[in-house]
Amino acid sequence: MRRAFATRFAAALIVTATAAGCTASATTGPSGNSGSRSTGQVRDLTDAEQVVVERAEGLLTKKCMAARGFSYWVGPIASVDERKTAVYVLDDLAWVRKHGYGGRLVRAAERAGNPNFAYSNAFPREDRVRYTRALEGMPSDTVSVELPRGGTVEGPAGGCRAEARGELYGDHETWFRVSTITENLAPLFLPDLMKDKRFVHALASWSSCMRKEGHDYRSPEHLRLELARSTDGMSDGKAHAVEVELATAEAVCAGEDASGLAATARDLEREYRAKKLGPYADTIATHQRLSLAALARAEDITGGAS
């Protein structure tokens, strides 16, 4: 379990350092702070709102699968706290003193597993195929999207998941297109952001601060990669203690009284998004509008409970 967590944790940080948190739809920027950003009459969903939407999607999928003769369990759905684990740099001292890097949250989610996998894997092959087609549609029934920097992503256009998203967002294919594009916009500006002198200076100051605290790391992603290796095989208690110590140092050093890395990352994200993502303004706005419409429907479906 520790090795599985370490691998997942390291992989998540590689993505975070080069892509995540700077997409048009993300609510956690490179700074690691959550919250919606307004854009005219539309905005991104907060993490708490996203949980409500995902729960509603699960409930709609469950209803659809039941109509086709199958059981379906809602979730697992990442909590608001779990979503804070995939960020570039932490600066929420209260959170890190409680959760470290969220390792316990991730490991608890892994232990809980996904009951849908166990359920479908218990079927004979023929019934497992029926289950998959009910959930995902026919293999030939797909929707594809060209990514901003090249390449294509395909997803199911039929089945209960697509039906659930269609009911939530109003148009599954439009939602798949705009969400896929907005989740892959970071390569358009993040390389330039990370070469910006302001970011480079703040990162160097952060690294210097960490050395003074007794932790020699070039960057937050370097720290987390090393953390994943060093805690592999530790007991849960020891790993958590290491996490809390390092995450607290990271957050202190990212603050305004030290390097200002968190604020710099936030400011530069806004600046570079404005500079580079103009051609995708309509796509971003459509994504936000569909998300807010889905939230309204999701609140009716779930009673607003997250």
UniProtKB/TrEMBL annotation:
Region (Disordered): 25-45
Keywords: Signal
Region forming the signal peptide: 1-19
Composition-biased stretches (Polar residues): 29-41
Protein name, UniProt field: Lipoprotein
Species per Swiss-Prot/TrEMBL record: Streptomyces coeruleorubidus
Lineage: Bacteria, Bacillati, Actinomycetota, Actinomycetes, Kitasatosporales
